[in-house]
Amino acid sequence: MSQARSFVALAASSRSSSHAATNRKSRSVHTIPRPKPAYPGHIPLTPFENGFLAVGSALMSLIDTRRADMVAACGETTAGSTLVKLRDIMLESPEGRRILKEMPRINSQTLDLEKLRSLPENTFGRAYVGWLDTCKVTPDSREPVHYIDDPELAYVMQRYRETHDFYHALFGFKVSALPELALKAFEFSNLGFPMTALSLGASIRLKPPQRARLWGEFVPWAARCGSHARCLLTVYWEERWGQDLDEMKKELGVWNPPAGITIP
Amino acid sequence: MQATRSIRLPRKLSACRLIHNHSILRSSDPSGRTTSFGFRTVPEESKESLVKGVFDSVASKYDLMNDASSLGVHRLWKDSFVDTLKPGRKGPLRCIDVAGGTGDIALRILDHARENYADRETTVEIVDINAQMLKEGFTRFKKTMYHNTPQVSFHEANAQELPASQFKNDSYDLYTITFGIRNCTSIPAVLSEAYRVLKPGATFACLEFSKVNNPLLSTLYDQYSFTVIPLLGTILAGDRDSYQYLVESIRKFPSQPEFAQMIRDAGFSTGGDFDGGAWTDLWGGIASIHTGVKI
Protein backbone atom coordinates (compact mmCIF):
# COMPACT_ATOMS: atom_id res chain seq x y z
CA MET A 1 0.00 0.00 0.00
CA SER A 2 3.04 2.26 0.20
CA GLN A 3 2.60 2.78 -3.50
CA ALA A 4 -0.81 4.27 -3.09
CA ARG A 5 0.05 7.74 -1.95
CA SER A 6 3.43 8.04 -3.65
CA PHE A 7 2.40 11.03 -5.76
CA VAL A 8 0.97 13.37 -3.21
CA ALA A 9 2.98 12.23 -0.19
CA LEU A 10 6.31 12.85 -1.84
CA ALA A 11 5.25 16.25 -3.06
CA ALA A 12 5.60 17.36 0.53
CA SER A 13 9.09 16.02 1.06
CA SER A 14 11.94 18.19 -0.12
CA ARG A 15 13.75 16.48 -2.91
CA SER A 16 16.35 18.46 -4.84
CA SER A 17 15.99 18.44 -8.57
CA SER A 18 18.64 16.53 -10.42
CA HIS A 19 18.47 19.16 -13.11
CA ALA A 20 19.50 22.14 -11.02
CA ALA A 21 23.16 22.90 -10.50
CA THR A 22 24.03 21.05 -7.31
CA ASN A 23 27.76 21.54 -7.50
CA ARG A 24 28.49 25.09 -6.52
CA LYS A 25 32.26 24.82 -6.57
CA SER A 26 34.63 27.01 -8.50
CA ARG A 27 32.79 28.26 -11.56
CA SER A 28 29.23 29.41 -11.99
CA VAL A 29 27.48 27.05 -14.32
CA HIS A 30 24.91 28.33 -16.73
CA THR A 31 21.85 26.18 -16.54
CA ILE A 32 18.10 26.44 -16.63
CA PRO A 33 16.79 26.78 -13.09
CA ARG A 34 14.02 24.23 -12.75
CA PRO A 35 11.43 23.98 -10.01
CA LYS A 36 11.82 20.96 -7.74
CA PRO A 37 10.05 17.79 -8.83
CA ALA A 38 6.65 17.43 -7.17
CA TYR A 39 6.70 13.62 -7.18
CA PRO A 40 9.17 10.88 -8.14
CA GLY A 41 9.75 10.94 -11.88
CA HIS A 42 8.39 14.47 -12.30
CA ILE A 43 10.19 16.50 -14.97
CA PRO A 44 8.94 20.12 -14.90
CA LEU A 45 8.90 21.63 -18.38
CA THR A 46 8.73 25.21 -19.58
CA PRO A 47 5.95 26.07 -22.03
CA PHE A 48 8.40 25.96 -24.94
CA GLU A 49 9.67 22.53 -23.90
CA ASN A 50 6.13 21.30 -23.46
CA GLY A 51 5.26 22.39 -26.98
CA PHE A 52 8.45 20.93 -28.42
CA LEU A 53 7.83 17.60 -26.73
CA ALA A 54 4.17 17.62 -27.76
CA VAL A 55 5.13 17.96 -31.43
CA GLY A 56 8.13 15.65 -31.20
CA SER A 57 6.31 12.90 -29.34
CA ALA A 58 3.33 13.06 -31.71
CA LEU A 59 5.64 12.68 -34.71
CA MET A 60 7.67 9.94 -33.09
CA SER A 61 4.54 8.00 -32.10
CA LEU A 62 3.50 8.10 -35.73
CA ILE A 63 6.94 7.05 -37.01
CA ASP A 64 7.45 4.26 -34.50
CA THR A 65 4.13 3.08 -33.13
CA ARG A 66 5.86 0.83 -30.63
CA ARG A 67 7.17 3.81 -28.67
CA ALA A 68 4.66 3.66 -25.83
CA ASP A 69 6.73 6.25 -23.96
CA MET A 70 6.13 8.71 -26.79
CA VAL A 71 2.38 8.08 -26.79
CA ALA A 72 2.46 8.71 -23.05
CA ALA A 73 4.47 11.90 -23.45
CA CYS A 74 2.10 13.11 -26.16
CA GLY A 75 -0.86 12.49 -23.88
CA GLU A 76 0.69 14.43 -21.04
CA THR A 77 1.92 17.39 -23.03
CA THR A 78 -1.39 17.86 -24.82
CA ALA A 79 -3.67 17.17 -21.87
CA GLY A 80 -4.36 20.81 -21.13
CA SER A 81 -7.45 21.20 -19.00
CA THR A 82 -8.74 17.69 -19.62
CA LEU A 83 -7.27 16.37 -16.40
CA VAL A 84 -8.89 19.14 -14.39
CA LYS A 85 -12.28 18.33 -15.91
CA LEU A 86 -11.81 14.62 -15.27
CA ARG A 87 -10.71 15.17 -11.70
CA ASP A 88 -13.80 17.26 -11.09
CA ILE A 89 -16.03 14.58 -12.61
CA MET A 90 -14.38 12.05 -10.31
CA LEU A 91 -15.04 14.29 -7.34
CA GLU A 92 -18.74 14.38 -8.20
CA SER A 93 -19.14 10.61 -7.92
CA PRO A 94 -18.81 8.65 -4.65
CA GLU A 95 -16.79 5.94 -6.37
CA GLY A 96 -14.56 8.53 -8.04
CA ARG A 97 -13.97 10.26 -4.74
CA ARG A 98 -12.87 6.97 -3.22
CA ILE A 99 -10.36 6.50 -6.03
CA LEU A 100 -8.90 9.96 -5.52
CA LYS A 101 -8.68 9.40 -1.79
CA GLU A 102 -7.06 5.95 -1.91
CA MET A 103 -5.07 6.45 -5.14
CA PRO A 104 -4.86 2.75 -6.01
CA ARG A 105 -2.12 1.64 -8.41
CA ILE A 106 -2.32 -1.23 -10.88
CA ASN A 107 0.72 -3.42 -11.35
CA SER A 108 1.75 -6.98 -10.70
CA GLN A 109 2.37 -6.24 -7.03
CA THR A 110 -1.02 -4.71 -6.33
CA LEU A 111 -3.02 -7.29 -8.28
CA ASP A 112 -3.50 -10.89 -7.19
CA LEU A 113 -3.72 -12.54 -10.59
CA GLU A 114 -4.06 -16.04 -9.21
CA LYS A 115 -7.09 -15.03 -7.21
CA LEU A 116 -8.61 -13.44 -10.31
CA ARG A 117 -8.05 -16.62 -12.30
CA SER A 118 -10.12 -18.51 -9.77
CA LEU A 119 -13.18 -16.31 -10.23
CA PRO A 120 -16.29 -17.61 -12.07
CA GLU A 121 -16.39 -17.39 -15.84
CA ASN A 122 -18.37 -14.33 -16.81
CA THR A 123 -16.98 -12.02 -14.14
CA PHE A 124 -14.96 -8.90 -14.86
CA GLY A 125 -11.93 -10.19 -12.93
CA ARG A 126 -11.85 -13.45 -14.87
CA ALA A 127 -12.29 -11.60 -18.16
CA TYR A 128 -9.34 -9.32 -17.29
CA VAL A 129 -6.97 -12.15 -16.48
CA GLY A 130 -8.17 -14.07 -19.53
CA TRP A 131 -7.39 -11.05 -21.67
CA LEU A 132 -3.91 -10.66 -20.12
CA ASP A 133 -3.16 -14.31 -20.82
CA THR A 134 -4.57 -14.33 -24.36
CA CYS A 135 -2.80 -11.17 -25.46
CA LYS A 136 0.36 -11.95 -23.46
CA VAL A 137 0.38 -8.62 -21.69
CA THR A 138 1.43 -7.81 -18.14
CA PRO A 139 -0.03 -5.14 -15.90
CA ASP A 140 3.46 -3.67 -15.53
CA SER A 141 3.94 -2.14 -18.93
CA ARG A 142 2.82 1.41 -18.18
CA GLU A 143 5.21 4.37 -18.39
CA PRO A 144 5.10 6.55 -15.25
CA VAL A 145 3.84 10.10 -15.56
CA HIS A 146 6.56 12.74 -15.95
CA TYR A 147 5.21 15.97 -17.38
CA ILE A 148 2.11 16.82 -15.33
CA ASP A 149 2.96 19.36 -12.64
CA ASP A 150 0.13 18.90 -10.16
CA PRO A 151 0.54 15.61 -8.23
CA GLU A 152 -3.18 14.90 -8.05
CA LEU A 153 -3.66 15.48 -11.77
CA ALA A 154 -0.57 13.36 -12.36
CA TYR A 155 -2.33 10.59 -10.48
CA VAL A 156 -5.45 10.99 -12.64
CA MET A 157 -3.26 10.59 -15.74
CA GLN A 158 -1.50 7.59 -14.24
CA ARG A 159 -4.89 6.06 -13.36
CA TYR A 160 -6.07 6.57 -16.95
CA ARG A 161 -2.96 4.86 -18.27
CA GLU A 162 -3.23 1.96 -15.87
CA THR A 163 -6.96 1.42 -16.39
CA HIS A 164 -6.62 1.43 -20.18
CA ASP A 165 -6.10 -2.31 -20.00
CA PHE A 166 -9.39 -2.68 -18.14
CA TYR A 167 -11.15 -1.04 -21.07
CA HIS A 168 -9.48 -3.64 -23.28
CA ALA A 169 -10.77 -6.38 -21.00
CA LEU A 170 -14.25 -4.91 -20.74
CA PHE A 171 -14.80 -5.10 -24.48
CA GLY A 172 -12.31 -7.87 -25.17
CA PHE A 173 -10.26 -5.71 -27.54
CA LYS A 174 -7.13 -7.30 -28.97
CA VAL A 175 -3.86 -5.39 -28.89
CA SER A 176 -3.19 -4.83 -32.57
CA ALA A 177 -3.46 -1.51 -34.37
CA LEU A 178 -7.13 -1.49 -35.39
CA PRO A 179 -8.61 -2.38 -31.98
CA GLU A 180 -6.23 0.04 -30.27
CA LEU A 181 -7.40 2.87 -32.48
CA ALA A 182 -11.03 1.92 -31.95
CA LEU A 183 -10.40 2.05 -28.23
CA LYS A 184 -8.66 5.42 -28.56
CA ALA A 185 -11.74 6.74 -30.36
CA PHE A 186 -13.88 5.46 -27.50
CA GLU A 187 -11.57 7.11 -24.97
CA PHE A 188 -11.78 10.42 -26.78
CA SER A 189 -15.52 10.25 -26.69
CA ASN A 190 -15.65 9.17 -23.05
CA LEU A 191 -12.71 11.01 -21.48
CA GLY A 192 -11.72 13.77 -23.89
CA PHE A 193 -7.91 13.59 -24.03
CA PRO A 194 -6.67 15.45 -27.12
CA MET A 195 -4.00 12.81 -27.65
CA THR A 196 -6.68 10.15 -28.19
CA ALA A 197 -8.11 12.18 -31.05
CA LEU A 198 -4.61 12.87 -32.42
CA SER A 199 -3.83 9.18 -32.33
CA LEU A 200 -6.53 8.57 -34.91
CA GLY A 201 -4.09 10.26 -37.27
CA ALA A 202 -2.12 7.03 -37.07
CA SER A 203 -4.91 5.45 -39.07
CA ILE A 204 -3.00 6.53 -42.18
CA ARG A 205 -0.69 3.65 -41.40
CA LEU A 206 -3.47 1.09 -41.55
CA LYS A 207 -4.20 -0.85 -44.71
CA PRO A 208 -7.12 0.69 -46.65
CA PRO A 209 -9.69 -2.00 -45.77
CA GLN A 210 -8.84 -1.71 -42.09
CA ARG A 211 -8.96 2.06 -42.26
CA ALA A 212 -12.37 1.90 -43.89
CA ARG A 213 -13.64 -0.37 -41.13
CA LEU A 214 -12.19 1.90 -38.46
CA TRP A 215 -13.90 5.02 -39.71
CA GLY A 216 -17.00 3.28 -41.02
CA GLU A 217 -17.84 0.96 -38.13
CA PHE A 218 -15.75 1.47 -35.08
CA VAL A 219 -15.52 5.24 -34.79
CA PRO A 220 -19.34 5.64 -34.98
CA TRP A 221 -19.68 2.95 -32.33
CA ALA A 222 -17.06 4.67 -30.18
CA ALA A 223 -18.69 8.07 -30.52
CA ARG A 224 -22.12 6.80 -29.50
CA CYS A 225 -21.00 4.38 -26.82
CA GLY A 226 -18.37 6.63 -25.29
CA SER A 227 -20.65 9.62 -24.92
CA HIS A 228 -23.52 7.51 -23.63
CA ALA A 229 -21.45 5.74 -21.02
CA ARG A 230 -20.56 7.10 -17.64
CA CYS A 231 -17.02 8.50 -17.32
CA LEU A 232 -14.94 5.36 -16.90
CA LEU A 233 -12.42 7.07 -14.65
CA THR A 234 -15.09 7.09 -11.96
CA VAL A 235 -15.15 3.29 -11.96
CA TYR A 236 -13.33 1.65 -9.06
CA TRP A 237 -12.46 -1.48 -11.03
CA GLU A 238 -10.66 -3.13 -8.14
CA GLU A 239 -13.92 -3.28 -6.18
CA ARG A 240 -15.69 -5.02 -9.02
CA TRP A 241 -13.67 -8.13 -9.80
CA GLY A 242 -16.59 -10.43 -9.02
CA GLN A 243 -19.22 -8.42 -10.89
CA ASP A 244 -20.95 -10.12 -13.81
CA LEU A 245 -19.64 -8.69 -17.07
CA ASP A 246 -22.99 -8.14 -18.78
CA GLU A 247 -24.46 -6.53 -15.70
CA MET A 248 -21.42 -4.28 -15.50
CA LYS A 249 -21.79 -3.17 -19.10
CA LYS A 250 -25.41 -2.32 -18.50
CA GLU A 251 -24.56 -0.38 -15.37
CA LEU A 252 -21.82 1.60 -17.07
CA GLY A 253 -23.92 2.24 -20.15
CA VAL A 254 -21.67 0.52 -22.69
CA TRP A 255 -22.32 -2.13 -25.28
CA ASN A 256 -20.09 -4.33 -27.43
CA PRO A 257 -18.42 -2.98 -30.54
CA PRO A 258 -19.02 -4.48 -33.99
CA ALA A 259 -17.36 -7.83 -34.47
CA GLY A 260 -13.82 -8.45 -35.69
CA ILE A 261 -11.48 -6.86 -33.16
CA THR A 262 -12.28 -8.66 -29.96
CA ILE A 263 -10.86 -11.85 -28.53
CA PRO A 264 -13.15 -14.85 -28.89
CA MET B 1 56.95 -4.00 -36.82
CA GLN B 2 54.01 -4.47 -34.60
CA ALA B 3 51.33 -6.80 -35.79
CA THR B 4 48.13 -4.83 -35.61
CA ARG B 5 45.44 -7.18 -34.53
CA SER B 6 42.04 -6.74 -36.06
CA ILE B 7 39.36 -7.97 -33.74
CA ARG B 8 36.39 -9.73 -35.14
CA LEU B 9 33.47 -8.56 -33.05
CA PRO B 10 30.82 -11.24 -32.65
CA ARG B 11 27.18 -10.41 -33.11
CA LYS B 12 26.42 -11.11 -29.50
CA LEU B 13 29.10 -9.42 -27.51
CA SER B 14 28.50 -11.74 -24.58
CA ALA B 15 29.71 -14.72 -26.60
CA CYS B 16 33.36 -13.84 -26.36
CA ARG B 17 35.30 -10.95 -24.95
CA LEU B 18 37.62 -8.60 -26.79
CA ILE B 19 41.06 -7.69 -25.57
CA HIS B 20 39.85 -6.78 -22.14
CA ASN B 21 41.73 -4.48 -19.87
CA HIS B 22 41.41 -5.81 -16.35
CA SER B 23 41.42 -2.32 -14.96
CA ILE B 24 38.11 -1.48 -16.66
CA LEU B 25 36.22 -3.36 -14.02
CA ARG B 26 38.66 -3.04 -11.16
CA SER B 27 37.19 -3.51 -7.75
CA SER B 28 36.35 -0.26 -6.05
CA ASP B 29 39.00 0.89 -3.67
CA PRO B 30 37.38 3.69 -1.70
CA SER B 31 39.77 6.58 -1.84
CA GLY B 32 37.37 9.21 -0.51
CA ARG B 33 38.07 11.27 -3.60
CA THR B 34 35.13 12.59 -5.57
CA THR B 35 34.71 13.75 -9.11
CA SER B 36 31.94 15.21 -11.20
CA PHE B 37 29.42 13.21 -13.18
CA GLY B 38 27.69 16.04 -14.97
CA PHE B 39 26.51 18.31 -12.18
CA ARG B 40 26.46 15.50 -9.66
CA THR B 41 29.38 14.76 -7.39
CA VAL B 42 30.20 11.08 -7.21
CA PRO B 43 32.97 8.92 -5.76
CA GLU B 44 35.83 8.72 -8.21
CA GLU B 45 35.53 4.94 -8.45
CA SER B 46 31.99 5.07 -9.69
CA LYS B 47 32.40 7.55 -12.50
CA GLU B 48 33.70 4.92 -14.90
CA SER B 49 30.73 2.63 -14.46
CA LEU B 50 28.27 5.53 -14.58
CA VAL B 51 29.80 6.67 -17.87
CA LYS B 52 29.73 3.08 -19.09
CA GLY B 53 26.01 3.01 -18.38
CA VAL B 54 25.51 6.19 -20.38
CA PHE B 55 27.38 4.93 -23.41
CA ASP B 56 25.88 1.45 -23.32
CA SER B 57 22.55 3.21 -23.47
CA VAL B 58 23.32 5.76 -26.19
CA ALA B 59 25.49 3.59 -28.45
CA SER B 60 22.81 2.42 -30.88
CA LYS B 61 21.44 5.91 -31.41
CA TYR B 62 24.73 7.79 -30.97
CA ASP B 63 25.22 8.87 -34.57
CA LEU B 64 21.57 9.78 -35.01
CA MET B 65 21.60 11.90 -31.85
CA ASN B 66 24.83 13.62 -32.90
CA ASP B 67 23.22 14.61 -36.17
CA ALA B 68 19.98 15.70 -34.58
CA SER B 69 21.39 17.64 -31.66
CA SER B 70 24.08 19.43 -33.66
CA LEU B 71 21.95 19.68 -36.80
CA GLY B 72 24.77 17.91 -38.59
CA VAL B 73 27.42 20.44 -37.55
CA HIS B 74 29.49 17.83 -35.73
CA ARG B 75 30.44 16.53 -39.17
CA LEU B 76 31.90 19.91 -40.08
CA TRP B 77 33.89 20.00 -36.87
CA LYS B 78 35.30 16.54 -37.43
CA ASP B 79 36.15 17.39 -41.03
CA SER B 80 37.98 20.54 -39.82
CA PHE B 81 39.79 18.54 -37.20
CA VAL B 82 41.15 15.96 -39.59
CA ASP B 83 41.91 18.57 -42.26
CA THR B 84 44.02 20.43 -39.72
CA LEU B 85 45.99 17.29 -38.95
CA LYS B 86 46.57 16.34 -42.61
CA PRO B 87 47.32 12.67 -41.94
CA GLY B 88 49.47 11.14 -44.65
CA ARG B 89 51.06 14.36 -45.86
CA LYS B 90 54.48 13.34 -44.57
CA GLY B 91 54.13 9.64 -45.14
CA PRO B 92 52.10 6.85 -43.60
CA LEU B 93 51.21 7.27 -39.95
CA ARG B 94 50.51 4.90 -37.16
CA CYS B 95 47.53 6.49 -35.41
CA ILE B 96 45.71 5.77 -32.22
CA ASP B 97 42.18 7.13 -31.92
CA VAL B 98 41.07 6.97 -28.32
CA ALA B 99 37.44 7.04 -27.19
CA GLY B 100 36.96 6.50 -30.90
CA GLY B 101 33.99 4.16 -30.51
CA THR B 102 31.83 4.65 -33.53
CA GLY B 103 34.77 5.39 -35.84
CA ASP B 104 34.00 8.89 -37.14
CA ILE B 105 37.58 10.14 -36.84
CA ALA B 106 39.32 6.93 -37.82
CA LEU B 107 37.33 6.82 -41.03
CA ARG B 108 38.15 10.43 -41.83
CA ILE B 109 41.85 9.88 -41.16
CA LEU B 110 42.00 6.88 -43.48
CA ASP B 111 39.96 8.60 -46.18
CA HIS B 112 42.05 11.77 -45.99
CA ALA B 113 45.31 9.85 -46.35
CA ARG B 114 43.91 7.79 -49.20
CA GLU B 115 42.20 10.57 -51.16
CA ASN B 116 44.86 13.24 -50.82
CA TYR B 117 48.10 11.27 -50.71
CA ALA B 118 47.19 7.85 -52.17
CA ASP B 119 48.25 6.50 -48.80
CA ARG B 120 47.04 3.00 -47.97
CA GLU B 121 49.63 2.32 -45.33
CA THR B 122 48.37 4.64 -42.61
CA THR B 123 46.75 2.65 -39.84
CA VAL B 124 44.35 3.62 -37.06
CA GLU B 125 43.87 1.65 -33.87
CA ILE B 126 40.50 2.56 -32.43
CA VAL B 127 40.47 2.32 -28.67
CA ASP B 128 37.37 2.66 -26.53
CA ILE B 129 36.42 1.60 -23.03
CA ASN B 130 32.90 0.75 -24.14
CA ALA B 131 32.24 -2.43 -26.07
CA GLN B 132 28.85 -1.30 -27.35
CA MET B 133 30.35 1.76 -28.96
CA LEU B 134 33.12 -0.33 -30.55
CA LYS B 135 30.51 -2.65 -31.92
CA GLU B 136 28.77 0.26 -33.63
CA GLY B 137 32.12 1.35 -35.05
CA PHE B 138 32.92 -2.11 -36.31
CA THR B 139 29.55 -2.33 -38.03
CA ARG B 140 30.11 1.05 -39.67
CA PHE B 141 33.55 0.02 -40.91
CA LYS B 142 32.08 -3.09 -42.48
CA LYS B 143 30.46 -0.75 -44.99
CA THR B 144 33.85 0.64 -45.99
CA MET B 145 36.89 -0.63 -47.87
CA TYR B 146 38.96 -0.77 -44.69
CA HIS B 147 37.11 -3.70 -43.14
CA ASN B 148 39.35 -6.74 -42.80
CA THR B 149 42.46 -4.78 -43.62
CA PRO B 150 45.33 -3.88 -41.31
CA GLN B 151 44.39 -0.23 -41.66
CA VAL B 152 41.78 -0.36 -38.91
CA SER B 153 41.53 -2.35 -35.72
CA PHE B 154 39.37 -2.17 -32.61
CA HIS B 155 40.53 -2.41 -29.02
CA GLU B 156 38.64 -2.29 -25.76
CA ALA B 157 40.82 -0.44 -23.28
CA ASN B 158 40.86 2.34 -20.73
CA ALA B 159 42.45 5.60 -21.93
CA GLN B 160 43.86 6.17 -18.44
CA GLU B 161 45.66 2.84 -18.38
CA LEU B 162 46.48 1.54 -21.84
CA PRO B 163 48.00 -1.92 -21.33
CA ALA B 164 51.72 -1.43 -21.82
CA SER B 165 52.24 -4.78 -23.48
CA GLN B 166 49.96 -3.83 -26.32
CA PHE B 167 50.32 -0.05 -26.41
CA LYS B 168 54.07 0.34 -26.12
CA ASN B 169 56.01 3.48 -25.31
CA ASP B 170 56.99 5.78 -28.14
CA SER B 171 55.07 3.93 -30.82
CA TYR B 172 52.45 6.21 -32.41
CA ASP B 173 52.69 9.12 -34.81
CA LEU B 174 49.31 10.60 -34.02
CA TYR B 175 47.03 10.37 -30.98
CA THR B 176 43.50 11.68 -31.37
CA ILE B 177 40.66 11.86 -28.87
CA THR B 178 37.35 13.36 -29.96
CA PHE B 179 34.49 14.25 -27.64
CA GLY B 180 35.72 11.63 -25.21
CA ILE B 181 38.20 13.12 -22.78
CA ARG B 182 35.58 14.95 -20.74
CA ASN B 183 34.01 11.59 -19.86
CA CYS B 184 37.20 10.24 -18.38
CA THR B 185 37.67 10.28 -14.64
CA SER B 186 41.18 11.70 -14.67
CA ILE B 187 42.21 13.93 -17.55
CA PRO B 188 45.86 14.08 -16.42
CA ALA B 189 46.03 10.28 -16.50
CA VAL B 190 44.76 10.24 -20.07
CA LEU B 191 47.26 12.92 -21.11
CA SER B 192 50.08 11.09 -19.43
CA GLU B 193 49.24 7.86 -21.28
CA ALA B 194 49.03 9.82 -24.52
CA TYR B 195 52.49 11.19 -23.86
CA ARG B 196 53.83 7.72 -23.13
CA VAL B 197 52.62 6.03 -26.29
CA LEU B 198 53.48 8.83 -28.71
CA LYS B 199 56.83 8.94 -30.46
CA PRO B 200 59.03 11.97 -29.85
CA GLY B 201 57.96 14.67 -32.28
CA ALA B 202 54.52 13.16 -32.65
CA THR B 203 51.21 15.01 -32.25
CA PHE B 204 48.50 14.89 -29.63
CA ALA B 205 45.18 16.27 -30.87
CA CYS B 206 41.93 16.65 -29.00
CA LEU B 207 38.56 17.84 -30.31
CA GLU B 208 36.24 18.60 -27.43
CA PHE B 209 33.37 20.83 -26.40
CA SER B 210 34.72 23.91 -24.73
CA LYS B 211 33.87 27.31 -23.28
CA VAL B 212 31.93 29.85 -25.27
CA ASN B 213 33.14 33.30 -24.29
CA ASN B 214 30.66 35.43 -26.19
CA PRO B 215 27.83 36.07 -23.67
CA LEU B 216 25.02 36.14 -26.23
CA LEU B 217 26.12 32.97 -27.97
CA SER B 218 26.71 31.38 -24.59
CA THR B 219 23.17 32.12 -23.41
CA LEU B 220 21.63 30.75 -26.59
CA TYR B 221 23.88 27.72 -26.46
CA ASP B 222 22.97 27.01 -22.83
CA GLN B 223 19.27 27.36 -23.53
CA TYR B 224 19.56 25.02 -26.47
CA SER B 225 21.70 22.52 -24.58
CA PHE B 226 19.53 22.28 -21.52
CA THR B 227 16.11 22.44 -23.12
CA VAL B 228 16.31 20.94 -26.60
CA ILE B 229 19.01 18.30 -26.23
CA PRO B 230 17.47 16.37 -23.31
CA LEU B 231 14.15 16.46 -25.16
CA LEU B 232 15.76 15.16 -28.34
CA GLY B 233 17.22 12.38 -26.21
CA THR B 234 13.76 11.62 -24.86
CA ILE B 235 12.14 11.64 -28.28
CA LEU B 236 14.78 9.96 -30.42
CA ALA B 237 16.40 7.63 -27.95
CA GLY B 238 13.90 7.31 -25.10
CA ASP B 239 16.67 8.42 -22.74
CA ARG B 240 16.64 11.86 -21.17
CA ASP B 241 19.11 11.22 -18.39
CA SER B 242 22.06 10.23 -20.56
CA TYR B 243 21.77 13.38 -22.63
CA GLN B 244 21.30 15.49 -19.52
CA TYR B 245 24.59 14.03 -18.29
CA LEU B 246 26.28 14.77 -21.60
CA VAL B 247 25.30 18.45 -21.66
CA GLU B 248 26.22 18.85 -17.99
CA SER B 249 29.61 17.22 -18.54
CA ILE B 250 30.40 19.86 -21.17
CA ARG B 251 29.96 22.61 -18.56
CA LYS B 252 32.30 20.85 -16.15
CA PHE B 253 35.17 20.58 -18.61
CA PRO B 254 38.11 22.98 -18.12
CA SER B 255 38.33 26.13 -20.23
CA GLN B 256 40.64 26.39 -23.22
CA PRO B 257 43.65 27.85 -21.36
CA GLU B 258 43.18 25.50 -18.41
CA PHE B 259 43.14 22.47 -20.65
CA ALA B 260 46.14 23.77 -22.60
CA GLN B 261 48.05 24.01 -19.33
CA MET B 262 47.09 20.43 -18.44
CA ILE B 263 48.45 19.33 -21.82
CA ARG B 264 51.72 21.12 -21.08
CA ASP B 265 51.82 19.60 -17.60
CA ALA B 266 51.83 16.17 -19.23
CA GLY B 267 55.01 17.11 -21.04
CA PHE B 268 53.72 18.31 -24.41
CA SER B 269 54.81 21.47 -26.09
CA THR B 270 51.92 23.65 -27.23
CA GLY B 271 51.34 26.95 -28.98
CA GLY B 272 50.63 30.12 -27.02
CA ASP B 273 47.58 30.58 -24.81
CA PHE B 274 45.39 32.22 -27.42
CA ASP B 275 42.90 31.12 -30.06
CA GLY B 276 45.05 29.93 -32.95
CA GLY B 277 47.90 28.89 -30.64
CA ALA B 278 47.48 26.00 -28.26
CA TRP B 279 43.87 25.70 -29.36
CA THR B 280 41.58 26.64 -32.21
CA ASP B 281 37.99 27.45 -31.40
CA LEU B 282 35.23 26.22 -33.65
CA TRP B 283 31.87 28.02 -33.75
CA GLY B 284 32.80 30.49 -31.05
CA GLY B 285 34.22 27.91 -28.68
CA ILE B 286 31.35 25.47 -28.71
CA ALA B 287 34.03 23.01 -29.79
CA SER B 288 37.76 23.47 -29.71
CA ILE B 289 40.80 21.68 -31.13
CA HIS B 290 43.75 21.44 -28.75
CA THR B 291 47.08 20.17 -30.06
CA GLY B 292 50.44 19.43 -28.53
CA VAL B 293 53.71 17.93 -29.65
CA LYS B 294 55.80 15.48 -27.67
CA ILE B 295 59.26 16.92 -27.43
TrEMBL record, chain A:
A GO cellular component annotation in the UniProt record: extrinsic component of mitochondrial inner membrane
GO molecular function: 4-hydroxy-3-methoxy-5-polyprenylbenzoate decarboxylase activity; zinc ion binding
Catalytic activities: a 4-hydroxy-3-methoxy-5-(all-trans-polyprenyl)benzoate + H(+) = a 2-methoxy-6-(all-trans-polyprenyl)phenol + CO2
Record keyword Lyase present: yes
Cofactor(s) recorded in Swiss-Prot or TrEMBL: Zn(2+)
Pathway connected to this protein: Cofactor biosynthesis; ubiquinone biosynthesis
Membrane topology: Peripheral membrane protein
Domain of life: Eukaryota
Keywords from the named record: Lyase, Membrane, Metal-binding, Mitochondrion, Mitochondrion inner membrane, Ubiquinone biosynthesis, Zinc
Assembly, per entry: Component of a multi-subunit COQ enzyme complex, composed of at least COQ3, COQ4, COQ5, COQ6, COQ7 and COQ9.
Family: Belongs to the COQ4 family.
Entry protein name: 4-hydroxy-3-methoxy-5-polyprenylbenzoate decarboxylase
Gene this protein is translated from: COQ4
TrEMBL record, chain B:
Record's GO cellular component terms: extrinsic component of mitochondrial inner membrane
Predominant location: mitochondrion
Domain of life of the native organism: Eukaryota
Keyword Methyltransferase: yes
Membrane topology: Peripheral membrane protein
Pathway assigned to this chain's UniProt record: Cofactor biosynthesis; ubiquinone biosynthesis
Catalysed reactions, as listed in the record: a 2-methoxy-6-(all-trans-polyprenyl)benzene-1,4-diol + S-adenosyl-L-methionine = a 5-methoxy-2-methyl-3-(all-trans-polyprenyl)benzene-1,4-diol + S-adenosyl-L-homocysteine + H(+)
A molecular-function term among this protein's GO annotations: 2-methoxy-6-polyprenyl-1,4-benzoquinol methyltransferase activity
UniProt xrefs under Pfam families: Ubie_methyltran
Localisation per UniProt entry: Mitochondrion inner membrane
Enzyme Commission code(s) on record: 2.1.1.201
BP term (GO), one: methylation
Keywords: Membrane, Methyltransferase, Mitochondrion, Mitochondrion inner membrane, S-adenosyl-L-methionine, Transferase, Ubiquinone biosynthesis
Amino-acid positions noted as binding S-adenosyl-L-methionine in the UniProt annotation, renumbered to this chain: 102, 128, 158-159
Assigned protein family: Belongs to the class I-like SAM-binding methyltransferase superfamily. MenG/UbiE family.
Subunit and partners: Component of a multi-subunit COQ enzyme complex, composed of at least COQ3, COQ4, COQ5, COQ6, COQ7 and COQ9.
General function of this protein: Methyltransferase required for the conversion of 2-polyprenyl-6-methoxy-1,4-benzoquinol (DDMQH2) to 2-polyprenyl-3-methyl-6-methoxy-1,4-benzoquinol (DMQH2).
Protein name in the entry: 2-methoxy-6-polyprenyl-1,4-benzoquinol methylase, mitochondrial
Species for this entry: Suillus luteus UH-Slu-Lm8-n1
